[in-house]
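Late entry, written up from scratch paper. The run itself happened at the end of the previous shift, but nothing got recorded in the book at the time, so transcribing now.
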Amino acid sequence: MSLAMISSYTLPRSQRAVVQGEKGEPILASDVPLPPLLEATVLVKTAGFALNTYDYKIGSLQTYPGAIIVNDFVGAIVKIANDTTTELRVGDVVLGTVHGSNPSDAHSGAFAEYVRAPADLLLRVPEGLAIEEAATFGLALTTSVLRAPVLVYGASTSTGAMALQLLRLAGFSPIATCSPRNFDLVRTRGAAAVFDYAAPGTAEQVRLHTGDRLCHTVDCIGDRESVAFCQAAIGRTGGRVARLEVCPGALRTRRAVKVELVMALEVFGKEVALPEPYYRAANQEKHDAEAHFFTVFQRLLDDGKLKPHPVQLVPGGWIGVLDGLHRLRSGAISGKKLVVLL
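Output as recorded:
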């Protein structure tokens, strides 16, 4: 069905979706109920999805059989909950992110024919932006709302590239690390200086470049090497590492450097019922702050000031997601965002 012709048709009673199996593995199900609309939400007929490392890691962390997987999506609004205050209308093509593999709500994931999403955490897709490009924004936007980091480690990831753009637009001079093959990409996203993360002595080069005054870093990779690099690059007086994965105490090598876990799933304001140390209590203030940022993101997107991440399409539709998650797990993807279209 064309997204342009979606304003009037009858919703089905059930749908196809990719859900967690008994061992956390992704499986295709054909009789999944449509998610009920809640206050201030909309129902979106999906057209495509972007895959993130979270989408394959969560199944090995803890299993939630029957929970719909995947966070990022693009599609057209088919229904809006009563009394929802929004400028969006039925038929609008939007992009967004939801809490996939949610232990508190099995219906909330994106990889389904229909997804329920908060109306104030959606962006209208402007003309000229391809569906597959629009799919790349979701989780990258919610993860990149941080307090003035300067060094972006793993800048060629979708989250890293988005952080570069937002930092630059906010008036900062972001420094990027990535593989040399992605130097041109991160420069086009706003990096003022670029370093090869794997070259010997690079952390010391960053300290020299910043005059030993670097205070903030964003670790978009989340492994042992990345947190060691970020701590080494921060100046003598210390600072903070915003990290997308938990940092064990043994990897915290500097007292003057605070390492913090950024949980994008907090932006929905709901309890994140994952096992410790990922658990988060409900926090409406986090949601309200993100909703404000989304009004800014909409203007930036409409004005062409936010660029999508380079896309690598995964063929196969519903079955393609299995191959895509395998490729993410193998570490074979660099400087690209895997997108599955229906």
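The radius of gyration is 20 Å.
(Scratch paper discarded after transcription.)
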